[in-house]
Protein backbone atom coordinates (compact mmCIF):
# COMPACT_ATOMS: atom_id res chain seq x y z
CA UNK A 1 0.00 0.00 0.00
CA UNK A 2 1.27 3.44 -0.87
CA UNK A 3 1.57 5.52 2.28
CA UNK A 4 1.93 9.29 2.08
CA UNK A 5 4.28 10.71 4.72
CA UNK A 6 3.21 14.23 5.60
CA UNK A 7 4.70 16.96 7.74
CA UNK A 8 3.07 16.63 11.18
CA UNK A 9 2.11 19.42 13.50
CA UNK A 10 5.21 20.66 15.31
CA UNK A 11 3.67 23.28 17.55
CA UNK A 12 0.79 25.65 17.91
CA UNK A 13 2.53 28.46 15.99
CA UNK A 14 4.50 26.35 13.51
CA UNK A 15 2.95 26.21 10.06
CA UNK A 16 5.80 24.94 7.90
CA UNK A 17 9.17 23.22 7.93
CA UNK A 18 12.27 23.07 5.77
CA UNK A 19 13.88 19.82 4.72
CA UNK A 20 17.52 20.04 5.77
CA UNK A 21 18.67 16.54 4.91
CA UNK A 22 17.24 13.29 3.67
CA UNK A 23 18.41 10.23 5.56
CA UNK A 24 16.74 7.96 3.04
CA UNK A 25 16.63 8.20 -0.73
CA UNK A 26 14.23 6.87 -3.31
CA UNK A 27 14.44 3.11 -3.40
CA UNK A 28 15.72 2.79 0.17
CA UNK A 29 14.00 0.46 2.59
CA UNK A 30 12.84 1.87 5.90
CA UNK A 31 11.51 0.46 9.14
CA UNK A 32 8.75 1.80 11.33
CA UNK A 33 9.92 4.86 13.29
CA UNK A 34 13.23 4.86 11.46
CA UNK A 35 14.36 8.44 10.73
CA UNK A 36 13.52 9.45 7.18
CA UNK A 37 14.81 12.99 7.07
CA UNK A 38 15.78 16.01 9.10
CA UNK A 39 13.38 18.90 9.25
CA UNK A 40 13.94 22.43 10.47
CA UNK A 41 11.52 25.08 11.64
CA UNK A 42 11.86 28.39 13.41
CA UNK A 43 11.50 26.53 16.69
CA UNK A 44 13.08 23.11 16.41
CA UNK A 45 15.42 20.96 14.35
CA UNK A 46 14.39 17.33 14.44
CA UNK A 47 14.05 14.11 12.53
CA UNK A 48 10.92 12.78 10.91
CA UNK A 49 10.40 9.06 11.49
CA UNK A 50 8.72 6.81 8.99
CA UNK A 51 5.17 5.90 10.03
CA UNK A 52 5.32 2.54 8.26
CA UNK A 53 7.86 -0.01 7.11
CA UNK A 54 8.48 -0.29 3.41
CA UNK A 55 10.35 1.27 0.52
CA UNK A 56 10.68 4.96 -0.31
CA UNK A 57 8.83 5.30 -3.60
CA UNK A 58 9.08 9.04 -4.01
CA UNK A 59 10.51 12.04 -2.21
CA UNK A 60 8.12 14.94 -2.65
CA UNK A 61 10.06 17.65 -0.82
CA UNK A 62 13.71 18.12 -1.70
CA UNK A 63 16.33 19.39 0.70
CA UNK A 64 16.06 23.12 1.46
CA UNK A 65 12.45 23.07 0.30
CA UNK A 66 9.76 24.36 2.63
CA UNK A 67 6.64 22.30 3.24
CA UNK A 68 3.49 23.32 5.07
CA UNK A 69 2.11 21.28 7.94
CA UNK A 70 0.21 18.42 6.36
CA UNK A 71 2.16 18.68 3.13
CA UNK A 72 3.51 15.53 1.59
CA UNK A 73 7.14 14.69 2.25
CA UNK A 74 7.43 11.29 0.65
CA UNK A 75 5.58 8.20 -0.45
CA UNK A 76 6.35 4.81 1.11
CA UNK A 77 5.14 1.47 -0.16
CA UNK A 78 4.65 -0.93 2.72
CA UNK A 79 4.37 -3.90 0.37
CA UNK A 80 0.78 -4.74 1.31
CA UNK A 81 -0.46 -4.16 -2.23
CA UNK A 82 -3.09 -1.50 -1.54
CA UNK A 83 -3.46 2.03 -2.85
CA UNK A 84 -2.20 5.20 -1.29
CA UNK A 85 -3.41 5.39 2.29
CA UNK A 86 -3.35 9.07 3.11
CA UNK A 87 -4.25 10.73 -0.14
CA UNK A 88 -1.11 12.80 0.16
CA UNK A 89 0.38 11.17 -2.90
CA UNK A 90 -0.66 11.63 -6.47
CA UNK A 91 -1.27 7.93 -6.74
CA UNK A 92 -4.18 7.98 -4.35
CA UNK A 93 -5.97 10.86 -6.02
CA UNK A 94 -5.25 9.97 -9.61
CA UNK A 95 -5.97 6.29 -9.22
CA UNK A 96 -9.49 7.01 -7.98
CA UNK A 97 -12.27 7.45 -10.48
CA UNK A 98 -11.78 6.28 -14.04
CA UNK A 99 -8.29 4.99 -13.38
CA UNK A 100 -9.53 2.41 -10.92
CA UNK A 101 -11.75 0.50 -13.34
CA UNK A 102 -8.83 0.28 -15.71
CA UNK A 103 -6.60 -1.07 -13.01
CA UNK A 104 -9.21 -3.59 -11.96
CA UNK A 105 -9.38 -4.81 -15.52
CA UNK A 106 -5.64 -4.90 -15.78
CA UNK A 107 -5.17 -6.93 -12.62
CA UNK A 108 -6.22 -10.27 -14.11
CA UNK A 109 -4.19 -9.66 -17.26
CA UNK A 110 -0.78 -10.89 -16.12
CA UNK A 111 -1.71 -14.29 -17.48
CA UNK A 112 -2.67 -12.72 -20.80
CA UNK A 113 0.31 -10.62 -21.69
CA UNK A 114 -0.87 -10.19 -25.26
CA UNK A 115 -3.97 -8.22 -24.25
CA UNK A 116 -2.49 -5.05 -22.73
CA UNK A 117 -2.79 -3.14 -26.00
CA UNK A 118 -6.60 -2.59 -25.96
CA UNK A 119 -6.68 -0.27 -22.91
CA UNK A 120 -6.38 3.43 -23.60
CA UNK A 121 -2.82 4.62 -23.87
CA UNK A 122 -3.19 7.94 -22.08
CA UNK A 123 -4.58 6.98 -18.68
CA UNK A 124 -2.40 3.91 -18.33
CA UNK A 125 1.01 5.55 -17.82
CA UNK A 126 -0.22 6.64 -14.41
CA UNK A 127 -0.98 3.12 -13.22
CA UNK A 128 2.29 2.05 -14.75
CA UNK A 129 4.11 4.45 -12.48
CA UNK A 130 2.16 3.33 -9.48
CA UNK A 131 2.67 -0.35 -10.00
CA UNK A 132 6.43 -0.41 -9.64
CA UNK A 133 6.20 1.17 -6.26
CA UNK A 134 3.64 -1.23 -4.99
CA UNK A 135 4.48 -4.64 -3.72
CA UNK A 136 2.41 -6.97 -5.78
CA UNK A 137 -0.12 -4.27 -6.51
CA UNK A 138 -0.99 -2.53 -9.73
CA UNK A 139 -2.25 0.63 -8.08
CA UNK A 140 0.24 1.12 -5.23
CA UNK A 141 2.72 3.96 -5.48
CA UNK A 142 4.85 3.34 -2.41
CA UNK A 143 4.71 4.78 1.07
CA UNK A 144 5.34 8.52 1.29
CA UNK A 145 7.52 9.60 4.17
CA UNK A 146 6.26 12.86 5.59
CA UNK A 147 7.67 15.29 8.10
CA UNK A 148 6.11 14.43 11.46
CA UNK A 149 5.17 16.80 14.22
CA UNK A 150 8.28 18.03 15.98
CA UNK A 151 6.84 20.35 18.60
CA UNK A 152 3.93 22.59 19.40
CA UNK A 153 5.40 25.63 17.64
CA UNK A 154 7.38 23.92 14.88
CA UNK A 155 5.85 24.13 11.41
CA UNK A 156 8.78 23.22 9.19
CA UNK A 157 12.19 21.63 9.08
CA UNK A 158 15.26 21.65 6.87
CA UNK A 159 16.89 18.54 5.47
CA UNK A 160 20.55 18.64 6.50
CA UNK A 161 21.68 15.27 5.22
CA UNK A 162 20.27 12.19 3.55
CA UNK A 163 21.49 8.93 5.03
CA UNK A 164 19.86 6.93 2.25
CA UNK A 165 19.75 7.55 -1.48
CA UNK A 166 17.38 6.47 -4.22
CA UNK A 167 17.70 2.74 -4.67
CA UNK A 168 18.97 2.07 -1.16
CA UNK A 169 17.19 -0.46 1.00
CA UNK A 170 16.01 0.50 4.46
CA UNK A 171 14.60 -1.33 7.45
CA UNK A 172 11.82 -0.25 9.76
CA UNK A 173 13.08 2.48 12.12
CA UNK A 174 16.37 2.78 10.26
CA UNK A 175 17.43 6.44 9.91
CA UNK A 176 16.64 7.87 6.48
CA UNK A 177 17.86 11.43 6.84
CA UNK A 178 18.74 14.14 9.29
CA UNK A 179 16.36 17.03 9.80
CA UNK A 180 17.02 20.37 11.42
CA UNK A 181 14.80 23.00 12.97
CA UNK A 182 15.69 26.06 14.98
CA UNK A 183 15.58 24.01 18.18
CA UNK A 184 16.72 20.48 17.46
CA UNK A 185 18.62 18.38 14.95
CA UNK A 186 17.31 14.86 14.70
CA UNK A 187 16.98 11.86 12.43
CA UNK A 188 13.88 10.73 10.61
CA UNK A 189 13.41 6.96 10.73
CA UNK A 190 11.77 4.93 8.01
CA UNK A 191 8.22 3.88 8.85
CA UNK A 192 8.42 0.82 6.63
CA UNK A 193 10.99 -1.57 5.27
CA UNK A 194 11.65 -1.35 1.57
CA UNK A 195 13.56 0.63 -1.01
CA UNK A 196 13.87 4.39 -1.40
CA UNK A 197 12.09 5.07 -4.67
CA UNK A 198 12.27 8.86 -4.68
CA UNK A 199 13.55 11.79 -2.64
CA UNK A 200 11.28 14.81 -2.71
CA UNK A 201 13.33 17.21 -0.60
CA UNK A 202 17.03 17.73 -1.19
CA UNK A 203 19.58 18.67 1.43
CA UNK A 204 19.28 22.25 2.74
CA UNK A 205 15.70 22.44 1.52
CA UNK A 206 12.87 23.28 3.91
CA UNK A 207 9.67 21.27 4.17
CA UNK A 208 6.57 21.94 6.21
CA UNK A 209 5.15 19.54 8.76
CA UNK A 210 3.26 16.89 6.85
CA UNK A 211 5.21 17.52 3.67
CA UNK A 212 6.49 14.53 1.74
CA UNK A 213 10.18 13.82 2.15
CA UNK A 214 10.57 10.62 0.19
CA UNK A 215 8.79 7.58 -1.13
CA UNK A 216 9.53 4.04 0.00
CA UNK A 217 8.28 1.01 -1.84
CA UNK A 218 9.04 -2.55 -2.79
CA UNK A 219 12.68 -3.04 -3.67
CA UNK A 220 11.62 -5.23 -6.60
CA UNK A 221 9.37 -2.55 -7.99
CA UNK A 222 11.60 0.47 -7.48
CA UNK A 223 14.11 -0.34 -10.19
CA UNK A 224 11.20 -0.63 -12.58
CA UNK A 225 10.88 3.14 -12.55
CA UNK A 226 14.44 3.81 -13.54
CA UNK A 227 15.09 1.03 -15.97
CA UNK A 228 16.01 1.37 -19.59
CA UNK A 229 15.78 -2.10 -21.01
CA UNK A 230 14.21 -3.45 -24.12
CA UNK A 231 13.91 -7.01 -22.89
CA UNK A 232 10.38 -7.70 -21.78
CA UNK A 233 10.42 -11.45 -22.12
CA UNK A 234 13.05 -11.89 -19.42
CA UNK A 235 11.00 -10.29 -16.71
CA UNK A 236 8.35 -12.93 -16.27
CA UNK A 237 11.04 -15.59 -15.99
CA UNK A 238 12.99 -13.71 -13.34
CA UNK A 239 9.90 -12.46 -11.61
CA UNK A 240 8.26 -15.88 -11.37
CA UNK A 241 10.14 -16.82 -8.18
CA UNK A 242 8.70 -13.64 -6.66
CA UNK A 243 5.01 -14.01 -6.23
CA UNK A 244 4.47 -10.27 -6.11
CA UNK A 245 6.34 -9.40 -9.28
CA UNK A 246 3.87 -10.71 -11.87
CA UNK A 247 1.19 -8.39 -10.55
CA UNK A 248 3.55 -5.50 -11.00
CA UNK A 249 4.59 -6.54 -14.48
CA UNK A 250 1.09 -6.75 -15.84
CA UNK A 251 0.43 -3.01 -15.76
CA UNK A 252 3.97 -2.34 -16.84
CA UNK A 253 3.53 -4.35 -20.02
CA UNK A 254 0.12 -2.90 -20.76
CA UNK A 255 0.80 0.73 -21.69
CA UNK A 256 0.52 1.47 -25.37
CA UNK A 257 3.74 3.47 -25.18
CA UNK A 258 6.53 0.94 -25.52
CA UNK A 259 9.29 3.25 -24.36
CA UNK A 260 8.13 3.39 -20.76
CA UNK A 261 7.63 -0.34 -20.26
CA UNK A 262 11.00 -0.97 -21.80
CA UNK A 263 12.65 1.39 -19.38
CA UNK A 264 10.72 0.14 -16.44
CA UNK A 265 11.35 -3.52 -16.89
CA UNK A 266 15.02 -4.14 -17.45
CA UNK A 267 16.42 -3.06 -14.09
CA UNK A 268 14.74 -5.91 -12.28
CA UNK A 269 17.27 -8.48 -13.46
CA UNK A 270 20.09 -5.98 -13.08
CA UNK A 271 19.35 -4.18 -9.82
CA UNK A 272 17.36 -6.76 -7.93
CA UNK A 273 20.40 -8.91 -7.10
CA UNK A 274 22.42 -6.08 -5.54
CA UNK A 275 19.38 -4.78 -3.67
CA UNK A 276 18.88 -8.06 -1.82
CA UNK A 277 22.11 -7.92 0.17
CA UNK A 278 21.59 -4.29 1.09
CA UNK A 279 18.65 -4.84 3.43
CA UNK A 280 20.63 -7.63 5.07
CA UNK A 281 23.68 -5.45 5.42
CA UNK A 282 21.60 -2.71 6.96
CA UNK A 283 19.53 -5.03 9.07
CA UNK A 284 22.68 -6.10 10.85
CA UNK A 285 23.40 -2.58 12.08
CA UNK A 286 19.82 -2.19 13.15
CA UNK A 287 20.09 -5.36 15.16
CA UNK A 288 23.39 -4.29 16.60
CA UNK A 289 21.87 -1.12 17.95
CA UNK A 290 19.49 -3.09 20.08
CA UNK A 291 21.36 -6.31 20.63
CA UNK A 292 24.88 -5.00 20.84
CA UNK A 293 26.14 -7.31 18.10
CA UNK A 294 27.58 -6.38 14.72
CA UNK A 295 28.50 -2.99 13.38
CA UNK A 296 26.32 -0.05 14.47
CA UNK A 297 24.59 2.04 11.84
CA UNK A 298 26.82 4.79 10.49
CA UNK A 299 26.83 7.23 7.61
CA UNK A 300 29.38 6.90 4.81
CA UNK A 301 31.23 9.95 6.13
CA UNK A 302 31.59 8.43 9.58
CA UNK A 303 32.60 5.08 8.13
CA UNK A 304 35.28 6.76 6.03
CA UNK A 305 36.57 8.71 9.02
CA UNK A 306 36.75 5.53 11.09
CA UNK A 307 38.60 3.73 8.32
CA UNK A 308 41.14 6.54 8.00
CA UNK A 309 41.96 6.31 11.71
CA UNK A 310 41.60 2.53 11.97
CA UNK A 311 38.71 2.73 14.43
CA UNK A 312 36.57 -0.36 15.01
CA UNK A 313 32.99 0.89 14.67
CA UNK A 314 31.64 -2.20 16.43
CA UNK A 315 33.42 -1.08 19.59
CA UNK A 316 31.73 2.32 19.74
CA UNK A 317 28.59 3.29 21.59
CA UNK A 318 26.83 5.86 19.41
CA UNK A 319 25.54 9.06 21.00
CA UNK A 320 23.12 9.83 18.16
CA UNK A 321 19.43 9.08 17.90
CA UNK A 322 18.77 5.38 18.29
CA UNK A 323 22.43 4.76 19.15
CA UNK A 324 23.69 5.96 15.78
CA UNK A 325 27.43 6.58 15.71
CA UNK A 326 28.26 10.19 14.94
CA UNK A 327 31.42 11.88 13.76
CA UNK A 328 32.10 13.13 17.28
CA UNK A 329 32.05 9.56 18.60
CA UNK A 330 34.74 8.54 16.13
CA UNK A 331 36.84 11.62 16.87
CA UNK A 332 36.60 10.91 20.59
CA UNK A 333 37.79 7.38 19.89
CA UNK A 334 40.66 8.76 17.82
CA UNK A 335 41.76 10.98 20.71
CA UNK A 336 41.56 8.06 23.12
CA UNK A 337 43.54 5.91 20.74
CA UNK A 338 46.25 8.54 20.28
CA UNK A 339 46.79 8.61 24.02
CA UNK A 340 47.63 4.92 23.93
CA UNK A 341 50.64 3.28 22.36
CA UNK A 342 50.51 3.37 18.54
CA UNK A 343 51.11 -0.37 18.48
CA UNK A 344 47.94 -1.10 20.41
CA UNK A 345 45.88 -3.84 18.82
CA UNK A 346 42.17 -3.71 18.04
CA UNK A 347 41.21 -5.29 21.36
CA UNK A 348 42.99 -2.68 23.51
CA UNK A 349 41.45 0.01 21.36
CA UNK A 350 37.93 -1.13 22.14
CA UNK A 351 37.99 -0.39 25.87
CA UNK A 352 39.35 3.05 25.13
CA UNK A 353 36.63 3.85 22.65
CA UNK A 354 33.93 2.41 24.85
CA UNK A 355 35.04 4.45 27.80
CA UNK A 356 35.05 7.57 25.71
CA UNK A 357 31.50 7.06 24.46
CA UNK A 358 29.81 7.94 27.76
CA UNK A 359 31.90 11.06 27.91
CA UNK A 360 30.67 12.01 24.47
CA UNK A 361 27.12 11.55 25.65
CA UNK A 362 27.47 13.70 28.72
CA UNK A 363 30.08 16.29 27.87
CA UNK A 364 28.73 19.61 26.61
CA UNK A 365 30.98 19.83 23.56
CA UNK A 366 33.18 16.78 22.94
CA UNK A 367 34.97 18.34 20.00
CA UNK A 368 38.52 17.08 19.68
CA UNK A 369 41.56 19.31 19.29
CA UNK A 370 42.24 17.70 15.93
CA UNK A 371 38.79 18.67 14.69
CA UNK A 372 39.21 22.24 15.86
CA UNK A 373 42.62 22.49 14.25
CA UNK A 374 41.17 21.26 10.97
CA UNK A 375 38.90 24.33 10.84
CA UNK A 376 41.79 26.76 10.53
CA UNK A 377 41.94 28.42 7.12
CA UNK A 378 38.62 26.96 5.97
CA UNK A 379 35.15 28.29 5.21
CA UNK A 380 32.36 26.14 6.62
CA UNK A 381 28.62 26.41 6.30
CA UNK A 382 27.01 27.19 9.64
CA UNK A 383 24.89 24.41 11.05
CA UNK A 384 21.18 24.91 11.49
CA UNK A 385 21.40 25.70 15.20
CA UNK A 386 24.01 28.39 14.56
CA UNK A 387 21.91 29.89 11.78
CA UNK A 388 18.80 30.01 13.94
CA UNK A 389 20.74 31.40 16.89
CA UNK A 390 22.08 34.17 14.68
CA UNK A 391 18.60 35.06 13.51
CA UNK A 392 16.80 34.80 16.85
CA UNK A 393 19.35 36.71 18.91
CA UNK A 394 19.39 39.57 16.44
CA UNK A 395 15.60 39.61 16.24
CA UNK A 396 15.33 39.57 20.03
CA UNK A 397 17.44 42.70 20.33
CA UNK A 398 15.40 44.39 17.63
CA UNK A 399 12.03 43.45 19.10
CA UNK A 400 12.42 44.36 22.77
CA UNK A 401 14.10 47.06 24.86
CA UNK A 402 16.71 45.02 26.73
CA UNK A 403 18.99 46.13 29.52
CA UNK A 404 20.86 44.25 32.23
CA UNK A 405 20.95 44.69 36.00
CA UNK A 406 23.57 42.87 38.10
CA UNK A 407 23.33 41.85 41.74
CA UNK A 408 25.89 40.17 43.97
CA UNK A 409 24.80 37.30 46.20
CA UNK A 410 26.50 35.51 49.08
CA UNK A 411 25.94 31.77 48.64
CA UNK A 412 28.22 30.64 51.47
CA UNK A 413 25.42 28.86 53.32
CA UNK A 414 24.39 27.02 50.16
CA UNK A 415 28.01 26.07 49.46
CA UNK A 416 28.34 24.63 52.96
CA UNK A 417 24.97 22.89 52.73
CA UNK A 418 25.85 21.43 49.34
CA UNK A 419 29.17 20.13 50.68
CA UNK A 420 27.36 18.32 53.49
CA UNK A 421 24.57 16.86 51.37
CA UNK A 422 26.02 16.17 47.91
CA UNK A 423 27.26 12.63 48.64
CA UNK A 424 23.99 11.46 50.17
CA UNK A 425 22.03 13.32 47.50
CA UNK A 426 23.98 11.60 44.74
CA UNK A 427 23.39 8.20 46.30
CA UNK A 428 19.70 8.82 46.90
CA UNK A 429 18.73 10.72 43.74
CA UNK A 430 21.28 9.47 41.23
CA UNK A 431 22.24 12.96 40.04
CA UNK A 432 24.86 15.46 41.14
CA UNK A 433 23.88 18.30 43.44
CA UNK A 434 25.18 21.44 41.73
CA UNK A 435 24.50 25.09 42.45
CA UNK A 436 22.11 25.40 39.50
CA UNK A 437 19.10 23.69 41.15
CA UNK A 438 19.37 26.14 44.07
CA UNK A 439 19.39 29.10 41.68
CA UNK A 440 16.49 27.59 39.73
CA UNK A 441 14.43 26.96 42.87
CA UNK A 442 14.91 30.50 44.14
CA UNK A 443 14.07 31.90 40.70
CA UNK A 444 10.86 29.90 40.40
CA UNK A 445 9.70 31.06 43.82
CA UNK A 446 10.50 34.67 42.95
CA UNK A 447 8.59 34.44 39.66
CA UNK A 448 5.49 33.45 41.61
CA UNK A 449 5.86 36.57 43.73
CA UNK A 450 6.56 38.84 40.75
CA UNK A 451 4.08 37.91 37.99
CA UNK A 452 5.09 40.92 35.90
CA UNK A 453 8.44 39.21 35.27
CA UNK A 454 6.79 35.91 34.35
CA UNK A 455 4.87 37.67 31.60
CA UNK A 456 4.96 38.64 27.92
CA UNK A 457 4.16 41.89 26.14
CA UNK A 458 2.41 41.91 22.77
CA UNK A 459 3.48 44.92 20.76
CA UNK A 460 0.66 44.55 18.25
CA UNK A 461 -2.27 44.16 20.63
CA UNK A 462 -0.74 46.25 23.43
CA UNK A 463 -1.61 43.45 25.84
CA UNK A 464 0.32 41.81 28.67
CA UNK A 465 -0.01 38.09 29.25
CA UNK A 466 0.65 37.06 32.85
CA UNK A 467 1.44 33.37 32.70
CA UNK A 468 -0.38 31.14 35.15
CA UNK A 469 2.50 28.68 35.50
CA UNK A 470 6.27 28.89 35.51
CA UNK A 471 7.86 27.08 32.59
CA UNK A 472 11.52 27.55 33.30
CA UNK A 473 13.99 27.55 30.43
CA UNK A 474 17.54 26.34 31.06
CA UNK A 475 20.28 27.23 28.57
CA UNK A 476 22.35 24.18 27.61
CA UNK A 477 25.70 24.25 25.84
CA UNK A 478 25.89 21.51 23.20
CA UNK A 479 28.40 20.68 20.50
CA UNK A 480 25.89 21.91 17.91
CA UNK A 481 25.21 25.19 19.66
CA UNK A 482 23.15 26.71 22.45
CA UNK A 483 19.74 25.21 23.21
CA UNK A 484 17.16 26.35 25.74
CA UNK A 485 15.37 23.37 27.24
CA UNK A 486 12.15 23.97 29.14
CA UNK A 487 11.09 22.56 32.50
CA UNK A 488 7.32 22.69 32.33
CA UNK A 489 5.50 23.50 35.57
CA UNK A 490 8.79 24.11 37.35
CA UNK A 491 6.89 25.71 40.21
CA UNK A 492 5.51 22.31 41.17
CA UNK A 493 8.94 20.69 41.53
CA UNK A 494 11.11 20.32 44.60
CA UNK A 495 14.84 21.00 44.64
CA UNK A 496 15.50 17.34 43.88
CA UNK A 497 12.90 17.38 41.12
CA UNK A 498 14.57 20.38 39.50
CA UNK A 499 17.96 18.69 39.75
CA UNK A 500 16.58 15.61 38.02
CA UNK A 501 14.90 17.58 35.25
CA UNK A 502 17.94 19.77 34.60
CA UNK A 503 20.27 16.78 34.38
CA UNK A 504 17.90 14.79 32.18
CA UNK A 505 17.11 17.60 29.74
CA UNK A 506 20.72 18.68 29.48
CA UNK A 507 21.93 15.15 28.79
CA UNK A 508 19.31 14.54 26.11
CA UNK A 509 19.93 17.92 24.52
CA UNK A 510 23.63 17.11 24.20
CA UNK A 511 22.94 13.67 22.73
CA UNK A 512 20.33 14.96 20.28
CA UNK A 513 17.50 13.07 21.96
CA UNK A 514 15.51 16.05 23.18
CA UNK A 515 11.85 16.29 22.23
CA UNK A 516 10.63 19.37 20.34
CA UNK A 517 8.02 20.14 23.00
CA UNK A 518 10.82 20.37 25.56
CA UNK A 519 12.37 23.28 23.66
CA UNK A 520 9.35 25.55 23.46
CA UNK A 521 6.85 27.24 25.75
CA UNK A 522 9.24 28.74 28.29
CA UNK A 523 8.13 31.79 30.29
CA UNK A 524 11.50 32.70 31.83
CA UNK A 525 15.04 31.41 31.31
CA UNK A 526 18.10 30.83 33.49
CA UNK A 527 21.54 30.53 31.90
CA UNK A 528 24.50 29.16 33.84
CA UNK A 529 27.16 31.52 32.54
CA UNK A 530 29.49 30.46 35.35
CA UNK A 531 29.91 26.91 34.06
CA UNK A 532 33.09 28.00 32.28
CA UNK A 533 34.22 30.50 34.89
CA UNK A 534 32.44 33.65 33.70
CA UNK A 535 31.61 36.07 36.50
CA UNK A 536 28.78 37.84 34.70
CA UNK A 537 27.40 38.42 31.23
CA UNK A 538 24.55 40.27 29.52
CA UNK A 539 22.09 37.56 28.44
CA UNK A 540 19.79 38.03 25.44
CA UNK A 541 16.12 37.34 26.11
CA UNK A 542 14.37 34.41 24.46
CA UNK A 543 11.30 35.93 22.83
CA UNK A 544 8.52 36.38 23.78
CA UNK A 545 9.81 36.11 27.34
CA UNK A 546 10.57 39.25 29.30
CA UNK A 547 13.68 38.25 31.18
CA UNK A 548 16.69 35.97 31.49
CA UNK A 549 18.78 35.46 34.61
CA UNK A 550 22.45 34.60 34.44
CA UNK A 551 24.21 32.74 37.24
CA UNK A 552 27.88 33.62 37.48
CA UNK A 553 30.67 31.42 38.75
CA UNK A 554 30.74 30.87 42.50
CA UNK A 555 34.11 32.12 43.74
CA UNK A 556 35.58 32.77 47.16
CA UNK A 557 36.39 36.40 47.86
CA UNK A 558 37.19 38.46 50.96
CA UNK A 559 34.06 40.34 51.93
CA UNK A 560 33.14 42.81 54.65
CA UNK A 561 30.39 41.36 56.80
CA UNK A 562 28.67 42.65 59.91
CA UNK A 563 28.13 40.54 62.99
CA UNK A 564 25.03 40.62 65.17
CA UNK A 565 26.40 43.60 67.07
CA UNK A 566 26.98 45.60 63.91
CA UNK A 567 30.75 45.19 63.93
CA UNK A 568 32.42 44.84 60.52
CA UNK A 569 34.80 42.01 59.86
CA UNK A 570 36.52 40.61 56.80
CA UNK A 571 35.73 37.01 55.93
CA UNK A 572 36.15 34.68 52.99
CA UNK A 573 32.75 34.13 51.43
CA UNK A 574 31.41 32.20 48.44
CA UNK A 575 30.08 34.88 46.10
CA UNK A 576 28.30 34.95 42.75
CA UNK A 577 26.91 37.60 40.41
CA UNK A 578 23.33 37.44 39.13
CA UNK A 579 22.88 39.50 35.94
CA UNK A 580 19.25 39.92 34.90
CA UNK A 581 18.41 41.04 31.38
CA UNK A 582 14.84 42.30 31.22
CA UNK A 583 12.46 43.89 28.73
CA UNK A 584 12.00 47.53 29.68
CA UNK A 585 8.73 47.64 27.74
CA UNK A 586 7.22 45.54 30.50
CA UNK A 587 9.61 45.65 33.46
CA UNK A 588 11.01 48.80 35.02
CA UNK A 589 14.38 48.94 36.72
CA UNK A 590 12.78 49.00 40.15
CA UNK A 591 10.72 45.91 39.29
CA UNK A 592 13.85 44.13 38.14
CA UNK A 593 15.65 45.12 41.34
CA UNK A 594 12.86 43.81 43.55
CA UNK A 595 12.76 40.55 41.61
CA UNK A 596 16.49 39.84 41.90
CA UNK A 597 16.49 40.97 45.53
CA UNK A 598 13.87 38.30 46.26
CA UNK A 599 16.16 35.70 44.70
CA UNK A 600 19.16 37.07 46.59
CA UNK A 601 17.41 36.90 49.95
CA UNK A 602 16.23 33.34 49.35
CA UNK A 603 19.73 32.18 48.43
CA UNK A 604 21.50 33.97 51.26
CA UNK A 605 19.09 32.54 53.80
CA UNK A 606 20.08 29.08 52.61
CA UNK A 607 17.06 27.38 54.11
CA UNK A 608 17.08 24.30 51.90
CA UNK A 609 17.68 21.65 54.55
CA UNK A 610 14.14 20.32 54.32
CA UNK A 611 14.50 20.08 50.54
CA UNK A 612 17.57 17.88 51.02
CA UNK A 613 16.18 15.75 53.82
CA UNK A 614 18.58 17.17 56.41
From TrEMBL:
Residues 63-299, 336-375 are annotated as: Disordered. Residues 2-77, 142-217 form the Lipoyl-binding domain. Pfam families: 2-oxoacid_dh, Biotin_lipoyl, E3_binding. The keyword Cytoplasm does not apply. Residues 297-334 form the Peripheral subunit-binding (PSBD) domain. Residues 116-126 have a biased composition (Pro residues). Keywords: Acyltransferase, Lipoyl, Transferase. It comes from the Bacteria. Its cofactor is (R)-lipoate. CDD domains: lipoyl_domain (cd06849). Coiled coil: none annotated. GO terms for cellular component: cytoplasm. The keyword Transferase applies. GO terms for molecular function: acetyltransferase activity; lipoic acid binding. Its EC number is 2.3.1.-. Residues 87-115, 127-142, 221-269, 278-287, 336-368 have a biased composition (Low complexity). InterPro entries: 2-oxoA_DH_lipoyl-BS (IPR003016), 2-oxoacid_DH_actylTfrase (IPR001078), 2-oxoacid_DH_E2_comp (IPR050743), 2-oxoglutarate_DH_E2 (IPR014276), Biotin_lipoyl (IPR000089), CAT-like_dom_sf (IPR023213), E3-bd_dom_sf (IPR036625), PSBD (IPR004167). PANTHER family: DIHYDROLIPOAMIDE ACETYLTRANSFERASE COMPONENT OF PYRUVATE DEHYDROGENASE COMPLEX (PTHR43178), LIPOAMIDE ACYLTRANSFERASE COMPONENT OF BRANCHED-CHAIN ALPHA-KETO ACID DEHYDROGENASE COMPLEX, MITOCHONDRIAL (PTHR43178:SF5). Belongs to the 2-oxoacid dehydrogenase family. NCBIfam families: SucB_Actino. This is Dihydrolipoamide acetyltransferase component of pyruvate dehydrogenase complex. It comes from Amycolatopsis marina. The lineage of its organism: Bacteria, Bacillati, Actinomycetota, Actinomycetes, Pseudonocardiales.
